[in-house]
Amino acid sequence: MIGFVYKDLLVLRRQVLLYLFFVGVYAALVVSGVFGPYILPALLVVIGLMLPMSSMSYDDLARWDKYAAATPALRQGIVAGKYLFALLCILGSAVLVLILMLALSLTGLMESPAVETGLTVLGCIGSALILDAVLLPLLFKFGAEKSRVILMILFAAVFGGSTLVGTLAEKAVPLPEPPAWLLTALPGVLGIIAVGGFVASYFISQGIFEKKEL
Question: What is the mean pLDDT of residues 93-115?
Fold first, then answer.
């Protein structure tokens, strides 16, 4: 399993460096005032999605699964390696973004307090885990190309729903206000959903890949 993760890092090393470059560029744009600082946590969600998808795309092109399934790791190791790789991508990018945002905060280039910064990064980690929990079973079921189309449809639906809510709020349309207890419990609930969904997704992918004809 660790070998599969190492393989993904080697295959995607140039893409990883490219993403690191883009993070640096966006950090510079935040410092110059072009973007707000909260563009940086959004990048970790993008990295957490795109690197696993790129990894699966390369695997499909090379027909890697047929070879890897014949190794001692078997199919279970392939799935476990991909989930571990996705998790490392999310956590690694989160650490980088957190360091950059704390540096901006300590130097006075960003006004948000450290606690708020940490909560924002944690929220984006949860979002990335939830999105990967949806994406990875699709990748194992349909492959990278079909999953890309499905993911675009899901993004369009989420973006459309968010835009609709924002439009209604701007027009002062009365929306149902959630109870106070729900707002208080929301971070913990989202954390449970993110971690639990990622774990459940792992077992779903194991079942999908076990039955898949290679």
Answer: 78
Q: Tell me the whole-structure pTM to 2 decimals.
A: 0.83
**Quick one: tokens of 175?**
């929306």
SS3 141: helix
Residues near 54 by beta carbon (within 8 Å), at least 6 away in sequence: 12, 15, 144
Contact between 83 and 213 under an 8 Å Cβ cutoff? The reply is: no
**Model confidence at 204: pLDDT above 90:** yes
Per-residue DSSP letters for 69-111? TTSTTHHHHHHHHHHHHHHHHHHHHHHHHHHHHHHHHHTTS--
Instruction: Extract the tokens encoding 82.
Output: 């991909």
112's CB contacts (< 8 A; 6+ apart) are: 37, 101, 105, 120
pLDDT digits (tens, 9 = 90+) for 43-83: 888 888 888 888 888 888 878 777 777 776 678 888 999 99
Q: What is the DSSP secondary-structure string of 106-136? A: HTTS--S-HHHHHHHHHHHHHHHHHHHHHHH
State the Cα–Cα distance between residues 187 and 91, nearest whole angstrom.
18
* Calpha distance 51→69 (Å, rounded): 21
